[in-house]
Structure formats: C-alpha cells, structure tokens
Amino acid sequence: MAHPIPKPFKWSNEFEVFYANLDDEHRGLFDGIFACGEANTAENYGALVEKVKTHFANEEKMMSSSNYANFATHKQAHDEFVGKCGGLSAPLSDDNLIYLQQWLVDHIKGIDFKYKGKLN
Ligand SMILES: [Fe+2]
Ligand SMILES: [Fe+2]
C-alpha cells in the first residue's frame, strides 16, 4: 500500500515509532534522501546508503534482542532494499528518487510500525 510522500521530504511525528534512537535515525534517512534531491551527488548518495545500513543494523539488533516475532521477514525487507540501493548510483533519476522516498515512507508505516511497543 502506498502512503503519501511528504513534501518537502522531511520526517514528522506521523512516522514516530516511539524509540528515540530509531526515530532519530529515521529522521536522518529522510534528511539523506532530501539531500540527494537538493544535490544529486555521489557523496550524498553514498552517505545515505551508509545511514541506511547503520539504521538497519541498529533496528535489527533491537528486534533480535527483543525476540521480535517478525524479525526474519523484516530483515528480508531490509536486505532487499540494500540490494536495490546497491544497484543505483548518483545522479539518481527522478523515478529512483521517488522510489527511495516511497520505499521509506511505506516501510516505516507498513513494516516498522508493527514493532511499536514490542521492542526493549
Ligand atoms: Fe525496518
Ligand atoms: Fe526503520
């Protein structure tokens, strides 16, 4: 299901998962994609991909240590996205920029929201 893409592409509390570290990282991912829209450079895209990987690792650590039931399918969604990101490079096309925006919005609201209240 496609959720609306915020314009400008910035985090707001409609994306809150109520774990401060994860909300901070999500805000950083919005900023990273926003930055690619402002300056569509390899430097900005590389920084975004690093932030994505760091965030996924941290989120997965929390899910794993909380024995979160949907860990495996959630990690699979992360791995697929990392693979997709690896196939892209700057300058990103408009379609790919929108793909990244839509993926993040849909992932947070559709997948990340399922762990709300279930992580330690
Ligand atoms: Fe996630
Ligand atoms: Fe996340």
TrEMBL record:
**SUPFAM superfamilies noted in UniProt:** Hemerythrin-like
Q: Where is the Hemerythrin-like domain?
A: 19-118
Keyword annotations for this protein, in alphabetical order, are: Iron, Metal-binding
Kindly list the positions annotated as binding Fe cation 1.
H26, H55, E59, D112
Q: Which residues bind Fe cation 2?
A: E59, H74, H78, H107, D112
Which InterPro entries does the UniProt entry name for this protein? Haemerythrin (IPR002063), Haemerythrin_Fe_BS (IPR016131), Hemerythrin (IPR050669), Hemerythrin-like (IPR012312), Hemerythrin-like_sf (IPR035938), Hemerythrin_metal-bd (IPR012827)
Q: Which family does it belong to?
A: Belongs to the hemerythrin family.
Q: What is this protein called?
A: DgyrCDS7758
* Classification lineage: Eukaryota, Metazoa, Spiralia, Lophotrochozoa, Annelida
